Amino acid sequence: MSNTSCLRCHGTNFQAGSLQTAGQLHFLPQVPGLLNFLGVGSVKVESRLCMDCGTLDFTVDPAEVAERNGLNAAN
């Protein structure tokens, strides 16, 4: 995760982790297509907890989303 400070309290004391689900949490953009329907275009979600205020933030790799789903990545 590229941000070095919390968006809420600007703290820098983070703990990386993951959310517990029946499987791993993934992001799936809303683009039409069979592969997307089957979950092939999904991308892993990374998370971290601000140990100062309790805020959770989530990040996905936009280049990976673009590559897996035939979208244009931001430059």
| Beta-strand segment tally | 5
Globally, the shape reads: flat
Give the amount of beta strand, in percent: 15-25%
Please mark out the parts with pLDDT under 50 across 5 or more consecutive residues, or reply none. Answer: none
First-to-last CA distance:
18 Å
> Roughly how much helix do the residues carry, as a percent range?
10-25%
Please compute the radius of gyration using only Cα atoms: 15 Å
Instruction: Give the helix/strand class.
Output: alpha+beta
If helices are DSSP runs of H or I spanning 4 or more residues, what is the number of helices?
2
Q: Which whole number gives the mean pLDDT?
A: 78
Largest sheet: 3 strands, antiparallel
**Strand order within the widest beta sheet:** 1-4-5
Number of domains as seen in the coordinates = 1
Question: What is the succession of H and E elements?
Answer: EEHEEEH
Molecular structure report:
The strands form 2 sheets. A 3-stranded antiparallel beta sheet has the order 1-4-5, with no helix packed on it. The protein has a two-stranded antiparallel ribbon with strand order 2-3. It has one domain. The two termini are 18 Å apart. The protein is flat. The model has no long low-confidence stretch (mean pLDDT 78). A hairpin with a 5-residue loop joins strand 4 and strand 5. With 75 residues, it is of the alpha+beta class. Helix content is 16%, strand content 23%.
Short précis:
This protein has 75 residues and is α+β, with helices and mostly antiparallel strands. Helices cover 16% and strands 23% of the residues. The protein is flat and about 40 Å long.
